[in-house]
Amino acid sequence: MRPRVEEVRIQGLGVIDEAVLELSPGFNVVTGETGAGKTMVVTGLGLLFGGRADPSRIRPGAERASVEGTLVIDPGGRVAQQVEDIGGQAEDGELIISRTVSAEGRSRAWLGGRSVPVGTLTYLADDLVAVHGQMDQQRLLQPARQRAALDRYAGNALVKPLRAYTQAYRRHKQVAAQLEELTTRARERAQEADLLRFGLEEIEKVDPKPGEDAELRAEEERLSHADALRNAATTAHTALLGDPMEAAGGARDVVSLLGEARAAMEAVRDFDAQLAGVADRLAEAGYLISDVATDLAAYAESVEADPGRLAAVQERRSVLSGLTRKYGEDTTAVLAWAQSSAARLTELEGDDERIGELTRELDELTARLTELADELTKVREAAAERFGHAVTEELTALAMPHARVVVQLTRSDEFGPEGRDEVELRMAAHPAAPPLPLNKGASGGELSRVMLAIEVVFAGADPVPTFVFDEVDAGVGGKAAVEIGRRLARLARTAQVIVVTHLPQVAAFADQHLVVEKASDGSVVRSGVVTLNHEGRVRELSRMLAGLEDSELGRAHAEELLGLAAADR
User: What beta strand segments (E) does 474-558 contain?
Assistant: First the structure.
């Protein structure tokens, strides 16, 4: 579904107090007496789509000017998605846009019920509207727009080579970025490789084992306190089993005391089951204490003060500490660092080979891009020639018989996303004049007609759904005016067209005719914009033709114009 503007409400803008424009999907024309505020309609549409806010345009005595537009859009289309992305809503395919400008120059905008920067409206307008007025000819004056429009005009002939070029361009860009990263960071990567190599060599020289630092720490503790450990074990052993070197009757050991207690229990165990259980437990305790005493004796004999081994352990721990300070919290982490660093070093050491591979691929892609860009240029040159002839023919019918439009293609030294062609529309006002950029080769009124001719030729290829023309018929009349009306009607077959005109020949071709009525005090009142029926159109066209709404001759001429336009459609 093609988006379109359904209704526009304007308040406090210029001479307009309040006006409502109900627009048709096709050709809408706005007429009215001089000074009634027709151009304010275009100004209001410009504000609605992000145009510059001029406080001097606010109606005298009003605090602000406001414009609100209702657009019909595809709920699943691109515009609806853009609105949703910024948090706005388009309910049932209906989008509300509004803009206010205060007398102090402050401007505010709303899109889908959400306050947005004015720039958002400008961004959205690129896909919605093209305004061609005396002071507003921006869209197709942008080089990127001109190239995109020419590409759409070229049609299927450009689709396949452009798709192939786009794929090759993306890969070319990726390879060029990788190659630049490798070559421009060669010094940093070499330094990184040296640091990794040094670290790996240092670790390899030490040859740490997983958990080795914890084991050495425990061994150092034992060796550092060997005398205390041996004395403690000996003392405990003596307490449990006694000292065989002491004379009988000396200190009594734990095992002897347990033996006496067990003997006392064994003597009476048959008389009481409870004491029998105690006797068994004393026996178990005796066995356990004897085992512990044996272990203590063996431990005491094994513990020796070994200054040499202690020095070796401390030295090894010092070496390992040097590694853990640099590469990890323990030897396990150091070994993990070594593993990952070895992989990274392998990658870095392969850079030279990788650079060679990427260089060869980049050369191949450059050759391929050159070939595809040449193909794009040939297709565009053919389309540009057809387009130039078509627009020039249109200008002849629009009372510019000596004007000539050409498409200039300039070859860039750099590859771009769309090729190497820079496209610029140019116009020569007469045969002896050199082709100049559109905004320099034509006056304001001529430029509107040039844009009309271009839009008619681009019709169907240009995706913009709404076109606005202000004074496109400036300086023409008679047959040329009829041709302008005919071409606007032709453009309205594929897009919504809104035209402000003072020529009846143009107005006769409209699908919907709106008239801005001027009140006696020089302002436009609330009911100032009226949608005309057939009888109203006859009266308005008669006024435009003869200046007298009820002139029989004027009415007859108006009927004739309406009949001519209807037959042409």
Answer: 496-500, 512-516, 529-531
Same domain, 116 and 2: yes
- Residue 85 buriedness (CB in 10 A; 0-12 / 13-18 / 19+): exposed
Instruction: For residue 531, give the 3-state DSSP assignment.
Output: strand
Mean pLDDT of 466-489: 81
Mean pLDDT (whole number) for 514-534: 72
Length of the chain: 569
- For residue 520, is pLDDT > 70? no
Q: Are residues 1 and 124 in the same domain?
A: yes
Within a domain: 389: no
Residue 526: per-residue pLDDT:
46
Residues 4 and 119 in one domain: yes
Q: Would residue 521 count as lying in a domain?
A: yes
CB 403, CB 429: distance < 8 Å: yes
Please give the mean pLDDT across all residues of the chain: 85
For the chain, percent of residues with pLDDT exceeding 90: 26
Q: Same domain for 1 and 111? A: yes
Of 314, 329, 344, which residue constitutes the final position of a domain?
329
Evaluated on CA atoms 17, 21, 27, 32, the torsion sign reads negative
Ordered strands of the 436-437 beta sheet: 404-416, 419-428, 436-437
- Residue 336 belongs to some domain of the structure: no
Residues 376-400 pLDDT 10s: 999 999 999 999 999 999 888 888 8
Count up the domains in the chain and report the number. Answer: 2
- The answer to whether 476 and 398 have CB atoms below 8 angstroms apart is yes
In a domain, 160, yes or no: no
What does the DSSP assignment read for 382-449? Answer: HHHHHHHHHHHHHHHHTT-TT-EEEEEEEEEEEEETTEEEEEEEEEESSTTSPPEEHHHHS-HHHHHH
- H or E segment to which residue 98 belongs: strand 94-102
pLDDT at res. 28: 94
Question: pLDDT digits over 424-472, tens only?
Answer: 888 888 888 888 887 776 666 677 778 888 888 877 566 678 888 887 7
Beta pairing class for 512-516 and 27-32: parallel
Residue 331 φ/ψ, nearest 5 degrees: -65, -30
- What residue has token string 């505020």? 37
CA proximity to 399, closest of 304, 474, 466: 474
Same domain, 10 and 117: yes
Query: Which of 278, 309, 329 marks a domain boundary?
Result: 329
- Determine whether 380 is exposed, middle or buried from the number of CB atoms within 10 Å of its CB (0-12, 13-18, 19+): buried
| C-alpha to C-alpha distance for 455 and 449, rounded to whole angstroms | 10
d(CA 535, CA 540): 9
Question: Are 222 and 120 contained in the same domain?
Answer: no
Same domain as 216, residue 120 = no
Residue with tokens 């958990």: 211
Q: Which domain holds residue 291?
A: 212-329
Q: 328-331 long-range CB contacts below 8 Å, 24 or more apart?
A: 330/211, 330/213, 330/214, 331/208, 331/209, 331/210, 331/211, 331/212, 331/213
* 98 lies in the same domain as 217: no
Round to the nearest angstrom and report the end-to-end CA distance of the chain: 23
Output the domain CATH number for residue 532. 3.40.50.300
